[in-house]
Every structure is written in structure tokens, then in C-alpha cells.
Write a structure and sequence with these properties.
heterodimer; A: 195 residues; 7 strands; B: five-stranded parallel sheet; five-stranded parallel sheet
Chain lengths: 195, 465
């Protein structure tokens, strides 16, 4: 897993609520047996017409918006547990997703793939959307070490919560298997102690 | 200290905590299917690891399988490859697989319970969000991502944040024609698609207690549709009776020993929940959804809310081709899908067969009934349900996830309306451009017969009179 700490980037705004993982990556693209290449089909049905031509009004097809931070409406990533959604976002190039609310499974999947989901207040989220609308070049500055997110060139700043263990994993590029394998004896002792 | 049912099972499965924060939770049963496992098996290979507990792992093929001519090779190349890859991975790692063609194959959340694998007090995971289904037995069951599938394969454990506890109590008697599907669609419509996020739900109350195991599974199945990690119901006589005698259920002295343990699985009288909701069964009527998430539901006699001014709401109605303030009664429909891990069990099929016996599917309707497993299909055939359905004009197909998620050959065409007993009405869920209206098996059967959305209660009252 790639390490992640400081991210300064322009943003891609997606002010839609309840974005489900079927929109992030439709089921018909889940037939791959590797983790690569899902970025091409990220938001497939919002991004492309049936004949594969780009839908011009979708944000990923609008050249004025770019960057490695996706800013999305509340309840992002609801629905299916498919980790392909996190793979697609990562493969496309996103390192951070900002929303006022994340679905649980998506949040876990993102962190297990070196993508940082940042939960901010609805007011701060709206402020980010307004900043991007006023200037598509507006940048966010994210520090995982400091657990802070700020709109560059303004006073708008928030701290965010993250479990200390998951923070350590993201900063160092560790995953849970490394840890679980290291406590094998404890797991076996737990099995033996079962009623 | 007073504990909830959830706490009792969680604490019993906590191996340790990571610096006092996240918990290492032991997993009793790992269920696997072809879509979310190949990358996990590859991860094991890359790290030179084995499956830690093959005996606690079971695989089946469900998402990709065709529901016609299952004896023939899968036509679509990628689906065929993914299903074959599951067989290969399971063979390489010593995991039992009920693959395509096996007489125990079926939707993973249908076969777990029917084989007696799902038992009270267990922790159960699967790379599928509807794993919450198994909570109906008083187990902690939830969906996980592929990285976590790999973690469980490698260690039989997961590192998890302990969720908050929510209790939803439903009391009273259900009206005629109101099914457990209506209960859960009603609850989600009240709590919204995000209302359960961060929580694990316990369903309680006299209404819930009165339900069969299959009806309870329908409720727990859709817990994820309000964002909850899972949903559970404390085991009782109904549960024990369902589990006893099943193939993988404990037998003899082991049964007695387990039963004594299961009888301790209840929420203590003074245990505290983070969040509580109460509903009255008398307020629940047959439900339909009108939007593109399961929270956008209403009683079939209601009108689509006109007060919501959000862009997301408007986008959703636009996709559905529906308007604010309108009723869905009499709305024309082209497809009816009865199936999925939500409503594809034998009781669902019996209800539908009873309703359509002596009736005919309307000419404008393509109607599919897809049993959840080979065993359900076999039972339906033994009871003559297949003949009733076929005579009424249904296409009675073979077991699989089918048109719930359109990953296989079963898809709803763009623009078409489908009344579906499945769990998600997301954009494109049943095929690009398809418009899904979620409902109970009875509502779906009535829609199939009338060719448009109707209130099933009218027919039932008529028959009673």
C-alpha cells in the first residue's frame, strides 16, 4: 500500500448525495480478477453515453476540474461492499475523498487501499463547494499527520477524526494483514479458549 | 454490567484490541463468492500465505451465473472465467466450493441458513453487503471488502471499530397483505438510506417475534440499505426449530450444548442502546419505492413527496421518469422480478404461487421467478409451485442473483420499469437505464397479474369476503 500524508491539490466537485458504489463502478465491470484498470470505468454511466462518448455535463469530463481530491455530497459510497469502488477511485488518481458523511464499508475499503476519506461538517463541505464554484483552481491542503484540512488562501480549516491505528497504517503504507499475522499466537489461544 | 445481544457476541469474539482502540474480532464463518474473492486469493499467493481455517470457509458461485441452461458453459467469457477462477482458487487453497452445477449451489445468503451453517451467536462475514441477512439467527453478520476477505482468509480475524448500537422495536399485528419486506422498506423510508450508518441494529418487538425465520432474514438483509453495518434478531424457539436437523447444524449432545449457550443470547433488560426507534405495525402498509435509493419509499397509496427541493432528489425522479406529488397506483410496468437474497426463499415462492394460482401474468409483463438456491428450486418443484408459476405465465428460472444486480445475463432494458423483490433501486442496478421499484413478493405478484402497480390488499380482502 502507498504511503499517504500531505496532499495539496485542486478538487473535483461532485455535490450529489447518496452516491452509491453501483454508480462509482457498475456491477458489470466487476468481472476482473485483478485490482488494476478500474479507473477507466469510474462513474461509468454518469461519465459516458451508451456509445462510449463522454457526457459533457459530467464533472470528470469537464477539463476545468482536476486534482487528486474528490469532494462529494453526504453518504458517499453507500450500497454494495465492492472494494472495486475504492480501486476505481485510486486507479483514476484520487488520494483523498471529502464528504460530510461516508458509508461504513466504503470508508474501510478506502483506507485499506491508501485512500483517505475525510469527514467534515456539512457547513465546511458547502464552503468547499462554494470555493470551487468561485474558483475551479481553489486548492485543499490536507495533512494526515496533523489531521487537518484547509481551503488554501482562506481561514477555512477543520480537523478530522481518524483511528490512531488506521492513521499509522496510512502514514506508513501498512495493511491489516501484517498486524494480524504478527498476533497469530493470540488468535490461536482465543480459539482454544472457546466454550 | 447489562449487555446488549450485540455486545455479548462481540465481546466473546474479541481476541485483543489494538492499543485500546480497534478490536481484533474472530470470525466463525467466512462465506465466499466469485466476484469479491479472486484478488484476495491472489493476495495470499503474493504473500506466500495459506487459508488459515479452510473448514470455516465456504464458497459458492452466485452473482455471475446464468439462470437458464446452467448445465451448459457460461456464454459470457468474463463471467465464465471468474466462476472458473473461484473453483481453481478453492481447489488450490483447500476450500469447499458449491460451484455452478452443484446441488447445494445458490445465493450465498440463501444457502448459509438452509444448510444450517448460519447459527446463533456466530460472527459471519462475506464480501457482500447483504451478509447482514444471517443476523436473523442472532449472529453478528456483515459485509466486508476484498482486503478484509484476504485478512480473514489469512488469519480468521478482522480489525474493526466497534459500531454503535441501535434497537428498532416494532410492536403489534400486521394487516393482511403486509409482509416483512414492507416492514423493512417502511423503516428505511423513515430512517433514510443513511439513518443506520455507524450502527449495528437489533430488531425487537412483538411483530418481529411473530415472523418466520425467512421473513426475519428479509428484514436483516436490508439493514445495509439504511447504512447499518448489520442487523440482528435475538434467537428464540422459531430460530432453534429452523436450525435443528439441518445438514451442518450441531447434532445430538453437541446440539444440547449449543442450545444452552444460544439461550443466553438476548439483550439484558436494562442494557442501553445508543439509538432507539419504535414503530407500530398498524402504521405499516404495502410499500413501493419511487426513487433511486431504498430510503425513497412510500405506502402504495401515498403520493411522491413534493416538499424535497434538493438537486439529488430531482435527479433521482428524473432518472425514474416520475414526478413529485404523483401516485404510483396504476403506473404501467414492463418487468416483474421475484428473487434475490432478500426474497427468493420457499415461503416467498409459496406466497406468489398462492396468489397467481388461477390468474395470468398480464400481456405487457415479462415476469421472472428466480429461486435463491438449487434446494429452494427443488422444494418448489416438489410442491408443484413451478407448474403453478409456469401456467400463470412466469418464467421459472434456475438459482442465482439474477436481475438483482445484472452482472449476469438477466438484465432489465433501459427505460423499462421493473417491480422487483430485490434490495436496491440504484440507478442502473438492474441494467443501464433500468428503473427499479422495490416491493414485496405479494405486491410483485399482483403487479405481474395486472400489468401495473396495484394495492394487493384489494385482492386479498376480496378473497376473504
Amino acid at each position: 500500500m502507498k504511503k499517504l500524508d500531505q496532499v495539496n491539490s485542486t478538487c473535483v466537485p461532485l455535490p450529489i448525495e447518496d452516491v452509491d458504489t453501483d454508480q462509482i463502478i457498475p456491477a458489470r465491470f466487476l468481472k476482473a480478477t485483478t485490482k488494476e484498470g478500474f479507473g477507466d470505468n469510474l462513474f461509468r454511466d454518469w461519465r459516458y453515453e451508451k456509445d462510449d462518448s463522454p457526457k459533457e455535463d459530467f464533472v470528470l469530463n469537464n477539463a476545468i476540474y482536476s486534482g487528486t481530491i474528490l469532494v462529494a455530497g453526504r453518504n458517499f459510497g453507500c450500497g454494495s461492499s465492492r472494494e472495486h469502488a475504492a480501486w476505481a477511485l485510486g486507479d483514476y488518481g484520487f488520494q483523498v475523498v471529502v464528504s460530510s458523511f461516508f458509508a461504513d464499508i466504503f470508508k474501510g475499503n478506502a483506507m485499506n487501499n491508501g485512500i483517505l476519506p475525510i469527514t467534515v461538517t456539512q457547513e465546511f463541505l458547502d464552503e468547499i463547494f462554494r470555493a470551487i464554484e468561485a474558483d475551479p483552481e481553489a486548492k485543499l491542503s490536507v495533512s494526515l499527520t496533523k489531521q487537518s484540512i484547509a481551503i488554501e488562501g482562506s481561514d477555512a480549516k477543520q480537523s478530522f477524526e481518524i483511528d490512531p491505528y488506521k492513521k499509522m497504517c496510512l502514514l506508513n503504507g501498512y495493511d491489516d494483514i501484517d498486524y494480524l499475522i504478527s498476533i497469530k499466537d493470540q488468535i490461536e489461544a482465543h480459539e482454544v479458549a472457546q466454550p | 454490567m447489562a449487555k446488549t445481544l450485540f455486545d455479548k457476541i462481540w465481546d466473546a469474539h474479541t481476541v485483543t484490541t489494538v492499543d485500546g482502540g480497534m478490536c481484533v474480532i474472530y470470525i466463525d464463518q467466512h462465506l465466499i463468492h466469485e466476484v469479491t474473492s479472486p484478488q484476495a486469493f491472489q493476495g495470499l499467493r503474493d504473500r506466500g500465505l495459506q487459508v488459515a481455517r479452510p473448514a470455516k470457509t465456504l464458497a459458492t458461485a452466485d452473482h455471475n451465473v446464468p439462470t437458464k441452461n446452467q448445465h451448459l458453459p457460461i456464454v459470457e467469457e468474463l463471467s465464465r472465467y471468474q466462476v472458473a477462477k473461484l473453483d481453481e482458487n478453492c481447489r488450490d487453497f483447500g476450500v469447499t466450493v458449491y460451484g455452478l452445477g452443484h446441488d447445494k449451489q445458490g445465493i450465498v445468503h440463501v444457502i448459509g441458513p438452509e444448510l444450517g451453517i448460519t447459527q446463533p451467536g456466530m460472527t459471519i462475514v462475506c464480501g457482500d453487503s447483504h451478509t447482514s441477512t444471517h443476523g436473523a439467527f442472532g449472529s453478528i453478520a456483515f459485509g466486508i471488502g476484498t482486503s478484509q476477505v484476504e485478512q480473514v482468509l489469512a488469519s480468521q480475524c478482522l480489525i474493526l471499530q466497534k459500531p454503535k448500537r441501535m434497537r428498532i422495536t416494532v410492536d403489534g399485528e400486521l394487516a393482511l397483505g403486509v409482509l416483512s419486506k414492507d416492514i423493512i422498506l417502511y423503516i428505511i423510508s423513515k430512517l433514510t438510506a443513511a439513518g443506520g450508518t455507524g450502527h449495528f441494529i437489533e430488531y425487537a418487538g412483538s411483530t418481529i417475534r411473530s415472523l418466520s425465520m425467512e421473513a426475519r432474514m428479509t428484514i436483516c438483509n436490508m439493514s445495509i440499505e439504511m447504512g447499518a453495518r448489520g442487523g440482528m434478531i435475538a434467537p428464540d424457539e422459531t430460530t432453534y426449530e429452523y436450525v435443528e436437523g439441518r445438514e451442518k447444524a450441531p447434532q445430538g449432545a453437541e446440539w444440547d450444548r449449543k442450545l444452552a449457550l444460544w439461550k443466553e443470547l438476548y439483550t439484558d433488560a436494562d442494557a442501553v442502546f445508543d439509538t432507539e426507534y419504535h414503530f407500530d405495525a398498524a402504521d405499516i402498509a404495502p410499500m413501493v419505492t419511487y426513487g433511486t435509493n431504498p430510503g425513497m419509499g412510500m405506502q402504495v397509496t401515498d403520493h411522491i413527496p413534493s416538499g424535497n427541493q434538493s438537486e439529488s432528489f430531482a435527479k433521482s425522479l428524473d432518472y425514474m421518469g416520475l414526478e413529485k406529488g404523483k401516485s404510483l397506483l396504476e403506473h404501467p410496468v414492463q418487468y416483474v422480478f421475484i428473487g434475490s437474497c432478500t426474497n427468493s426463499r420457499i415461503e416467498d415462492l409459496r406466497l406468489v404461487a398462492d396468489f397467481v394460482k388461477g390468474r395470468q401474468v398480464a400481456e405487457n409483463i415479462t415476469a421472472w421467478v428466480v429461486p435463491g438456491s438449487q434446494q429452494v428450486r427443488k422444494q418448489a418443484v416438489a410442491e408443484g409451485i413451478d407448474q403453478v408459476l409456469i401456467e400463470a405465465g412466469f418464467d421459472f428460472r434456475e438459482a442465482g442473483c439474477s436481475a438483482c444486480l445484472a452482472m449476469n445475463e438477466d438484465k432489465i432494458p433501459a427505460g423499462a420499469y421493473c417491480v422487483s423483490t430485490s434490495n436496491r433501486n440504484f440507478e442502473g442496478r438492474q441494467g443501464p437505464g433500468a428503473r427499479t421499484i422495490l416491493a414485496s413478493p405479494l405486491m410483485a405478484a399482483a403487479t405481474a397479474v395486472e400489468g401495473k402497480i396495484v394495492d394487493v390488499r384489494a385482492y386479498l380482502q376480496h378473497e376473504e369476503a
